[in-house]
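Practice record 12: protein with calcium ion.
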Amino acid sequence: MNLSMKSAAVLDISAAALILLAPGAEANDDGKLVSVSGGYESDRWSDELYSQITFHGCYNSGTFPVAKSVDVQIWEDIKLNPDSCDNKTYTACYVGKVSNGEWTDLPAGNKQYYFKIMKIGGSKNTSGDPNLDVDKWVVDTTKADG
Ligand SMILES: [Ca+2]
């Protein structure tokens, strides 16, 4: 690599960092869930147009056996009046596969969104029994999935 190529590469990295830090830009996120109840709300992320949430490794625990499913919904974070997008039922993550939900109807313009656990095993379960564990969830805000 000659010197001019090296400087160009450094500039590219800086440009990418600036895009990641730009306020209001779409931001990917990931994490895990430990013993959450129905009604759980994720951290907020900035998004528009398209969003994808995958769950990897799902487990229900509780007093009574329940269906191996979790209902996930994206909400726009509007104070006192959050706006919901479609509900999706995830089951593959309970059997060693990846559950994939894609939302394609988010309005243009970056706003704050979060996902909410609507149902565990087919019912709201806000009491904490059963609980849900997810080894890893990933929010991908871009359509450019490799
Ligand atoms: Ca998006």
